[in-house]
Design brief:
By secondary structure, the chain is an all-alpha fold. The chain has a domain at 1-50. Helices cover 76% and strands 0% of the residues. It contains four helices and no strands. It has helices spanning 6-20, 24-48, 50-71, 85-99.
Length: 101
Amino acid sequence: MPNLGPMELLVILGIALLLFGNRLPTVGKSLGEGIRNFKKGLNDDSGDKAQPQAQQPQQNTQSTQQTIAAQSVQPGSLQSPQVNQQTKVDFVDVEHRDSSK
């Protein structure tokens, strides 16, 4: 890969200016509007944050109550499924037979 020195960069910049020179004012305008809208969005967003924070504690208490209700299920009522040992052995045998082909 060739090294790009200052002269090469100036040549590339000159070619880019010739190709995109007439579009540069439009690009600059769009970039400025984008930055302005971004800053406006940041300023508008700070006023909206105060209202949802007031509603957040109510949502947290509801989710805490649901979590406590879910944890209060009796451990004996939930049982893990029983696995038949013979079924496991048959499955292993089938895999072994298929791999020997």
